[in-house]
Design brief:
Layout lengths: L1 H18 L7 H11 L5 E4 L8 H4 L9 E2 L9 H16 L8 E6 H7 L3 H8 L3 E7 L4 H9 L12 H7 L3 E5 L5 H9 L4 E7 L12
């Protein structure tokens, strides 16, 4: 067992070196930043989009229990924002502890578009403290991966500015394009009040973890 753990550590260190300081920003690096801010009692919500495929290999579980809310196995893209609202309400009403847990949605641009941006109004209207972190690669990840394998290249989307959309609903939005601003933006959002959205422009060429295929 000790040998296996040592091999695992070596593999992780080698893998981390590929994306830790990379520019454009990698999705793995965004999850690392989220992980460093969340505590064991906080909640991470994921969408059913390609973004959720990064969670298993790159987000460490810090405690027992249902702290990661995900729809894996069914694939309802757009699940994330509704699940975030439900998690925020449940955490505020039913969690017993020294503080109300923080709640973060990790989603892609495609998943968030499918989930209903009008729910930003719901978050603001209910006065919920919710953080949304978008890995924005201007593409539908699963669709792009499948189409490129077949030589079809009409897979890109406009690079939507979700930070401005969040602000138009009365929330706070930050767009991150450079790695130097990533950690501070996510930390400020997670510790902020109300609707907080961090729109991270990530490397569109970074493929999903291949171990899942």
């Amino acid at each position: 067992m000790a040998d296996l753990r040592a091999e695992h550590v070596k593999y992780r260190e080698k893998d981390d070196a590929k994306w830790m300081h990379a520019q454009p920003i990698k999705p793995q690096r965004v999850l690392r930043s989220i992980s460093e801010v969340l505590d064991a009692g906080d909640y991470l919500v994921t969408d059913a989009s390609a973004s959720s495929r990064w969670i298993g290999p790159y987000f460490p579980v810090k405690s027992l229990g249902r702290k990661i809310i995900t729809p894996r196995g069914v694939g309802p893209t757009g699940f994330g924002i509704g699940a975030l609202i439900g998690t925020c309400i449940a955490a505020r009403e039913f969690d017993i502890g020294t503080r109300v847990p923080r709640n973060v949605l990790f989603t892609g641009d495609g998943g968030l578009m499918n989930g209903g941006l009008s729910d930003f109004e719901t978050i603001v209207k209910l006065g919920l403290d919710c953080t949304i972190v978008v890995i924005n690669n201007a593409a539908l990840g699963f669709v792009k991966l499948g189409q490129l394998a077949r030589g079809v290249y009409e897979t890109n989307r406009p690079l939507t500015d979700f930070a401005r959309i969040a602000e138009s609903f009365g929330g706070h939005g930050t767009r991150v394009e450079q790695l130097a601003g990533l950690d501070a933006a996510i930390c400020d959002a997670v510790h902020g009040r109300g609707l907080q959205l961090v729109d991270v422009v990530v490397d569109p060429k970074e493929l999903l973890p291949q171990a899942f295929y």
